[in-house]
Amino acid sequence: MARRIDIAPKKLPRQRRAIATVEALVEAATYILTREGLGGFTANKVADKAGVNIASFYQYFPNKEALVFHIVRQTWDRQLARLSPILTRPGDEHGVKLRDFVREFFLIEAAEVDLRRALRAASVDLRETEEFRALLSAGEEMTQRFVAEALKSSTSNDLDFIVRFIVLLTTSFAERTTDEGTAGAELIRQADLLTDMLIAQFGIA
């Protein structure tokens, strides 16, 4: 059963000033998380860094966990906006799409490695919430549509396993590779090695 953590925003900013306030809170929270970690992350410190009073913080977020989830969702949306068009573009072979997808994912992970590390630690308690699960499902559904098209002969059970395998392996390998500071041509080389293995393992053409 999903844990009951209130991570829904209290209200969405609509006016220019309100949007600027939320953006300042996000920027401050990101700064604190990436430099001080979860131990230094408090609502008061975020508000102070953002240059707003604590009442403004609680006007939009019920707690610091809600702000963390807001940042996670923003990060996830940015990633999907870059990755989804690769898997859905017409014309290319599935193997070509998969290679470009894995390369792009590795590049995203490398570019946001400090933020990802911070969010990974800060969002541990959020992963069983319905909202967090919905984010993960969106990524899995995108991958599942691609794999179903690439492997038309697979059964439903096989398809579920393959999707989970690809998502878990790609995510874990990208995290480890970028955590080690791998970048540039070597990062692309390792992404291609992973793609070659997936293509060979599942017969993706």
UniProtKB/TrEMBL annotation:
What GO terms are given for molecular function?
DNA-binding transcription factor activity; transcription cis-regulatory region binding
Xref: InterPro entries: DNA-bd_HTH_TetR-type_CS, Homeodomain-like_sf, HTH-type_TetR-like_transc_reg, HTH_TetR
- Record-annotated DNA-binding residue ranges: 42-61
Q: Which domain of life is it from?
A: Bacteria
- UniProt keyword list: DNA-binding
Q: Which Gene3D superfamilies match?
A: Tetracycline Repressor, domain 2
Which intervals hold domain HTH tetR-type?
19-79
Xref: SUPFAM superfamilies: Homeodomain-like
The answer to whether keyword DNA-binding applies is yes
Q: What is this protein called?
A: TetR family transcriptional regulator
